[in-house]
Amino acid sequence: MSALGVQFKDPDLLLSALTHRSYVHEHYQTSLQPNERLEFLGDSVLNFLTAQFLYQTFPQRGEGELTAMRASLVRTGMLARFARLLELGSFLKLGKGEEHSGGRERDNLLADAFEAVIAAIYLDQGMEAADRFLLPYLESEAARIVVHGLQLDDKSRLQERVQSERNQTPRYRTVSAEGPDHNRVFTIEVQAGGDRLGVGVGNSKQAAAQAAARAALEYLDSLEAQGGKAEGPAAT
Predict the structure, then answer these.
(1) How far is CA 117 from the centre of its chain?
(2) What span, in angstroms and rounded, lies between the C-alpha atoms of 38 and 176?
(3) Catalytic entry in 39, 43, 107, 189
(4) What is the per-residue pLDDT across 57-97, written as a single tens digit (0 to 9) for each?
(5) pTM of the full structure
(6) Is CATH 3.30.160.20 the right assignment for the domain spanning 154-225?
């Protein structure tokens, strides 16, 4: 992939980063590993490099602002956007079911692949190479944040609101995970102080958690409008 700007010493690392588990399940004789382990490592490398970038770039901003900026830069939708700029979707190795269900355009698959690619670069060439690869994306998006302000996702908005109004931190719990591997459906609820604030459903845990946070914000709005009385939140 010339778009990465990286010449891999071990090309199998890149191939594994782009291999979804559904492909491995259908091609059991392949020597390629699914990208889940690389995605796990890439998540940590991404968070470290993003935190380092923000710490060095914005010396006047406090912990709270830096945390919110990092959350915006590493959220699923943003990583999927970076992956689309690289056209990673066209290079993914998917099983037939995942392919037919639109996996090449699904945000969570694209975000996972982007994180896996970061890990592959890190393992192949070290942290500096991973940093060089990631830096243009961080710089571009950070510049947008400076100009247009920080656009918080629903989870971040809910956390700020609950901490401000209740002095508590929202907690997310997976209620259920159903369906085949290529089309899982997750149900997640968010609580604060023992109160269930919202329930969300999505094709990834991240999407379901965002949906739960969105439902919680709507519930808190209705609670406030009715003077503190509202029916329990519904799933979205």
Answers:
(1) 14
(2) 25
(3) 43
(4) 999 988 878 888 888 899 888 899 999 999 999 999 998 88
(5) 0.69
(6) yes
